[in-house]
Amino acid sequence: MATALITGAAARLGRAIAEALHRDHQVVIHYRHSRQAAESLVAELNRARPNSAVAVHSNLASAADCEQLALRALDGFGELTVLVNNASAFFPTPIGTATEQHWDQLMGSNLKAPFFLSQALAPALRANGGCIVNLADIHADKPMPAHTLYCAAKAGLVMLTKSLARELAPEVRVNAVAPGAILWPEQESEGYNKEQILARIPMHRSGDPSDIAEAVRFLVTAAPYISGQVIAVDGGRSLNI
Fold it and tell me: Residue 192 catalytic?
């Protein structure tokens, strides 16, 4: 059975993606701080199908962290077919308040970690004819006020997706999913007002984590001739930003 590593998979979108891929994959659940949630998810998945899920911890703060995570993920089931780069930091950085630490957090989780984890796992993915799916953002193309660093990091992730798709072809496909309004931040911030955003979505509603999970699953399981693409799952929001 094929094996998928999903970063940031203990909760929110990552959990939904892990549950969707678990239908026909063994899954490696990565977490940073949410150990209890990760172990609870693994226990739930293993009750559904024994010995089909494991949890691995990594801060994903350095290239060495990514390399160690790659090794632990491969140890979980002896091989790897799918990498989903989902782990992401998100918070506003208005000009005049951004710090180097903010830069490192946002670029690190949204761009640096996906690159070095993809690089570390490229040999295994090539050997298995695997794929990578990155979680981008519709604001990689159209910026969100007060979120310059986050938007720049996601824009970099989109180019990383396209560049890796060329470099790792033909053995490995690389695509991205760009969510719109799916899950709301715990605290409202400048440029991210829920009512204003919903009013500008053509479908007049937010999406569900399953919308993202099914798009990822489609790219993993049913899109053998799609590579280098970014699929917006946003209810048409990117048409009206």
Answer: no
Q: What's the maximum distance between 2 C-alpha atoms anywhere in the chain?
A: 52
Report d(CA 45, CA 22) in Å as an integer. 8
Which residues are CB-contacts of 51 (< 8 A; sequence separation ≥ 6)?
Answer: none
* Chain mean pLDDT for the chain: 94
Please tell me which residue in 31, 150, 192, 225 is annotated as part of the active site.
Answer: 150
CA distance 73 to 201: 38
CATH number at residue 199: 3.40.50.720
- pLDDT higher at 39 or 197: 39
pTM as predicted:
0.95
* Residue 65 domain boundaries: 3-239
Distance of alpha carbon 201 from alpha carbon 5, whole angstroms? 32
Helices 12-21 and 209-221 cross at an angle (nearest 10°) of 40
